Amino acid sequence: MEEKVAARVIAKYLKKGNMGRCLRDILPSSDLSKGQREEVAELIHDVIRWKKLYEHMIDIRGLKPSPETYLKLAMSGSQVDASSYPFVYRYSCSSYVADILKNHIEWAEFLNETPPTTLCVNFNKSSIDDVMNILQEENLPAERSHLKTAIITNSISKYSKVVQQHFAHVQDESSQLVSLLATATGDSIFDYCAGNGGKCLTIASITKNGKKLYAYEMNIAKRTTLKRRCIEYNANVTVEDNLSEKKYDIVLVDAPCTGLGAARRNPDTKYIESPGNLPQTQLSILNQAAENVNSGGVLFYVVCTITPEETTQVIQAFIRKKGFILSPFDDLPYKKFLLKNKYGAFSNLPRGDVFFLSFLKKEQ
Ligand SMILES: C[S@@+](CC[C@H](N)C(=O)[O-])C[C@H]1O[C@@H](n2cnc3c(N)ncnc32)[C@H](O)[C@@H]1O
After folding, report:
1. Cβ distance 169 to 228 under 8 Å?
2. Rg for the chain (alpha carbons), in Å?
3. Which of 120, 149, 202, 218 has most ligand 1 atoms within 8 Å of CB, for mutation?
4. Would you state the pLDDT for residue 27?
5. φ and ψ at 120, to 5 degrees?
6. How far is the CA of 226 from the centre of ligand 1 (A)?
């Protein structure tokens, strides 16, 4: 039963691509239980994670390139035999991504791992102890992390009472780290690319609604979800419908990106051949957002990716614009989880996705 559903997902993926959409189209309407759906989703992630390697194995072994063959290779853990293959097959990625990962072999291994599910506790409705206790009552794993908001658990936990009642939301540790850093200075914070509100809800939780928090999202459907979630989570956030000239102490730009740093969750991204026009978009968003920063305030650039074009090169181009200087992370909490470079830092949490961050201080 599970294998049949998994084969349907792979068949659709092989025709149309987009793992996330294939899973959403097929799993909810299947007859599988929640636990079985999670198992299938994990298997599909494995197939896509190792797709390039499996294609190569199918080719050299003369196998039939059917969904069932991909499933068999994934279920027998064929990737463990790949150490003698060329880099692109061994780490199952495009040649563009391979060129980046060759300089960061630790990421090549890490981005092919299965990630944990992590929760962010909502301090406006609950506490770490209460959420830990409820998870334990529900027989779900619950382990404290290095961060004060985070609990490491498993994927079934997204159906837990703690999530349904908005005592916590599912969020990777590194996203929580970004929110912790965003609250480190200043009284007012503007989340410029708020999406459905992941980081914004975490900021409201960490500060217990104690800072003036504003958010904007250009996509209307996401902005509607953001407004609804702020109410559900008791998060005191002013969601703006339009951009204005208002100034804030911290402007967080969590920009759209290739998402390579989150490849454990979306392995599709390992097969990109370039960052497309994202670097231009990122620079343009940064230039606009810079107008909303108070004198002496901080423009906080964040992307969950590792390509040089979207990280150091965007910052390099931005700081040619007068008036902002790179701020070292030395005074910030949790700096031990950052690997600094000339233009910012990469997050370095043992279980979190890889983010690039840059703190740009506006001169007084
Ligand atoms: C990485 S996501 C934000 C995720 C969100 N901060 C969270 O933590 O859940 C980036 C967001 O930027 C928005 N965005 C803002 N300006 C954009 C632009 N010029 N082009 C594309 N997307 C843009 C997208 O709609 C998207 O929701």
Report:
1. no
2. 21
3. 218
4. 93
5. -110, 120
6. 12
The finding on whether 170 has its CB within 6 A of some atom of ligand 1 is no
With a 6 Å cutoff on the Cβ, whether 219 touches ligand 1 is yes
> Is residue 47 within 8 Å of 22, Cβ to Cβ?
no
User: Tokens for 87?
Assistant: 């880099």
pLDDT digits (tens, 9 = 90+) for 234-291: 999 999 999 999 999 999 999 999 999 999 999 999 999 999 999 999 999 999 999 9
345 C-beta neighbours (distance < 10 Å), count: 21
Pick the CATH number of 173-362 from 3.40.50.150, 2.10.109.10, 1.20.120.530, 3.30.70.240: 3.40.50.150
**Ligand 1 centroid from CA 121, angstroms:** 23
Which amino acid does the sequence have at 272? I
Q: Decide whether any atom of ligand 1 lies within 6 Å of the 285 Cβ.
A: yes
> If one looks up domain 117-170 in CATH, what number appears?
3.30.70.1170
What are the structural domain ranges in the chain? 2-91, 117-170, 173-362
Positive/negative CA dihedral, 188, 218, 158, 14: negative
Q: What is the pLDDT of residues 59-98, one digit of tens each?
A: 999 999 999 999 999 999 878 888 889 999 999 999 999 9
